[in-house]
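Support case: user asked for a sample of complex input and structure output to validate their parser. Sending the pair below.
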Amino acid sequence: MALGLVKWARIKSPWILHFNTGACNACDIEVLAALTPRFDVERFGILLKGSPRHADVMVVTGSVTRQIRDRLVRVYEQMPEPKFVLAVGNCAATGGVFQQCYNVYEGIDKVIPVDVYVPGCPPRPEAIIYGVVKLLEKLAKS
Ligand code: SF4
């Protein structure tokens, strides 16, 4: 009963943490645009949080550089279970334009598990919202 209530609350109001692992900032601007009243993700109960300890979903942008890798893992480990990851943009999914550079991993899933990928360079806010809805559908089935 209590577990069902927690799951219901998480689906109705997922709290997100935004993490830039080395993006050019265009993906970040689209994530922020999705959070503005124009696109209004709060209608899904989605709230941006500053602490990983309060977040259900990590929204990651950019290719993972060797410099940021350990910090990404540390912040991911600070999130309470169950936790989910949304990879926003081609860089987050595969390394994008930075593929085969000596200083990047080719995709966030080389470092932490990813639940949903949102392709694009950068993806539009509508695509990010679609990715979040897909994640919520996945949560509902879990
Ligand atoms: S996917 Fe494109 S817009 Fe996003 S961080 Fe990479 S280069 Fe920048």
